[in-house]
Design a protein that fits this description.
The structure holds two protein chains of two kinds. In chain A, 34% of the residues lie in helices and 19% in strands. Chain A is an alpha+beta fold. In chain A, a hairpin with a 5-residue loop joins β8 (176-182) and β9 (188-192). Chain A is globular and about 70 Å long. The model of chain A is unreliable at 485-496 (pLDDT under 50). Chain B has three domains: 1-183 and 373-403, Uridine Diphospho-n-acetylenolpyruvylglucosamine Reductase, domain 3 (2-Layer Sandwich); 186-283, 2-Layer Sandwich (Alpha-Beta Plaits), CATH 3.30.70; 287-366, Alpha-Beta Plaits (2-Layer Sandwich), CATH 3.30.70.240. In chain B, β16 (320-324) and β17 (329-333) form a beta hairpin. The chains are: A alpha+beta, B alpha+beta.
Chain lengths: 496, 403
Amino acid sequence: MVAMPAPDTSVLSRREAIVSALREIVPGEGVIANDVAMRPYESDGLTAYRQLPMVVVLPETVEQVSKILSYCYENGIKVVPRGAGTSLSGGALPLADGVLLGMGKFNKVLEIDYPNRVVVAQPGVTNLGITKAVEGNGFYYAPDPSSQIACTIGGNVAENSGGVHCLKYGLTTNNVLGVEMVLMTGEVVRIGGKHLDAEGYDFLSLIIGSEGLLGVVTEVTVRILKKPETARALLVGFPTSEAAGDCVAKIIGAGIIPGGMEMMDKPAIAAAEAFVHAGYPLDVEALLIVELDGPEAECHHLLDRVSAIAKDCGAVTLRASTSEEERLKFWAGRKAAFPAVGRISPDYYCMDGTIPRAKLPLVLSRMRELSEKYGLLVANVFHAGDGNLHPLILYDANKEGELERAEHFGSDILRLCVEVGGVLTGEHGVGVEKRDLMPSMFNQTDLDQQLRVKCAFDDKGLLNPGKVFPELHRCAEMGRMHVHGGKTAFPDLPRF
Amino acid sequence: MQDAIKPRDANDVAEAVASAVADEKRLELVGRGSKRELGRATQTDATLDLSALSGITLYEPEELVLSARAATPISEIEKALEESKQELAFEPMDYGLLLNKAPGEGTIGGAIAAGLSGPRRIKAGAARDFMLGVSAVSGRGEIFKAGGRVVKNVTGYDLPRLLAGSWGTLAVMTDVTLKVLPRAEDCATVLLYGASDSRANEAMSAAMGSSCEVSAAAHLPQWPADNVAELDAPGKSVTALRLEGVPQSVAYRKSKLEELLKPFGALGSLDAAKSRAFWRSVRDVAPFADRTERAVWKISTTPSLAPGIAAGINGATGAHYCYDWAGGLLWLEMPGDKPQENAVRTALAGRGHATLIRASAAARASAEVFEPLDPVRAAISQRLKNSFDPKGVLNPGRIYAGS
């Protein structure tokens, strides 16, 4: 387990005064201070970690958010922002000496602007809520994380959420045009808007995916797209994962970017089929779902080309959806893969590394070795188009030591991803979960530069501390510069 | 001519920056020098000539990834991509025409640092959307890396994207890793003749809001349209919409788009070859290439506001203009060499941002080249600059005075 920073006893001793100061800012039921009522906030989607916050505050206006942060800044109190609490990396895990700032009451779509194809929403609107607001006119918001029914757009901004369609349509960062954000000092800043690209430095790129460490987003402007006219899915079974991986590479090599391209391994196929009866073949080692979207003529043409490539790569089953109902059925199994695995194991631990696609066979075979070493089964679902791997490690938390074994197994998988040229997390975030693995991907200089960026937004380190970065340093220390001029290792370079 | 330092690799760059810090010297970062006249005119003590950091280091078409040293010519990258029928989908513009220089001189690092994105910006994304990873030297003289070589990556802050559009003021990029995409097999352009600015704006909005998957949308009032070779002097305004994809799909969407645009006026079209030439002209703002003494501005704004803003500036100054990005990008050519900053910024009124692109060094020294920031963002910018380059040795003042 990753250790959180030790609570500050001087803050805890002021708890009563802090609670009443917050009640001054947010009257009524917006401040929750008793343990029973705070219980729902003690963890997020990474349920192995639990911690009651010092106090929960649920503001309703930007002014209240600003006053809360300003008060906490002045008084040296840590703040953990929270959307719907669906983070799989512990991004919203509370701190015992911290204020948990819940943004759930910011739940309104503020403006739908069809001529400019943007929606302005408060951060607590769900991802699917944005699509629901515009689908009557044939539009949608493209990023579709599997938690889209519950996760909020504010949380998507914090985590740079992806989904099954991001190879073609991009992640959150490619679909957000602007935000309003409150800094830890309480200052309110607007970045971007309905126009493209930022003036000056592109703060949006930093804020999106910053895991709540730079500011609290209070409004988001996203672009919306017209729904494709048709979509068709192809279900392809392969005798080996190598053949499936080869097929993915050949499809892309042929210049085809499918709307979605997902792979499942045998254990995942079996679990999903048993759960939703999607009609998946059970005698294959790997299953690909390839979705093609656009005008019907285009889908039809690409479907033929993808089918030909799949046959060349040794596909043993090949089925194209012939109706919208059938297409959704193909997807139902994949989308239910996590709960399906939940049915065959008391607990499972979901990982999220990304690898260069060509390394898939190597990574899968090394994963099988690790599975034997740790004595735990693993099922794999894979965003095959963009190399994002979700191994699900099966364990039983009630068995002595299994959770720890699952965590070690998971860490080994992520180190393996980095070793083959990939990264620790594709879309779930570093959070608490992968914090201590950061040095396997970045050296101290790399991490120091990131921490200095954090300092430019939050000089006291009060926003969501204990997440993302394995070590916390005071910003003043980080800013120091050691000049080492004079000793040159390159004497032939011109000198001033 | 000031001192020039020509590093051979990233270690040399680190050494040069560390020396500059120790000796309190300011460096101008230069790749092949094609964009030196852009941004605020700066005072530096030496030139950091990065042109030796050149060459593609990794290209895996099936993984959609390419890595190159920062000063690799764009032309070299485009050639390599073309061999695998791929491209830089953000369609980086070439400032050669506009700045009266030889075209085709830009480097990949320069295109990223200047955040260059062409007509396909509205569909495919900006330069930064294709930045997967970077290796760079900070103003502390430290080599650092960020990002990776895979598309899906949320490990740590997205510094590769931040460096896009930072004009070399934060770090010296030495290696970049980019996402590349297949090049469309076919393309075609639908033309709408004679629409007023506001009517053209509505037409572009209707096209972008349809399922035709328009990959570029521009509107040229009569004067600039008459000056675009591929349009054969139409004598009226031209609104152009590009479709790309497999031939079956382009043909289908073209007829669908024509149906949609019929109520807006007379239509025409460009075939694939003419389309490619035409959009290159739009990308490089060819209509404003001739009279290089005239000041040129670039404005990014909300598409539906653009006609009003253009009319306001035209009324106050007589500037010529044309629209790209479905109206969201406005190019303005002033009647003379004076930028007339007040008129431009007054008409824009903070609803987007205006950048002075072409002007004399004197004009660029006296005008705000980039959109001025409010105090909160200005303070964050300054702290961000300090976090990378505390002594202000890298392109100081290129974006804002004093930073």
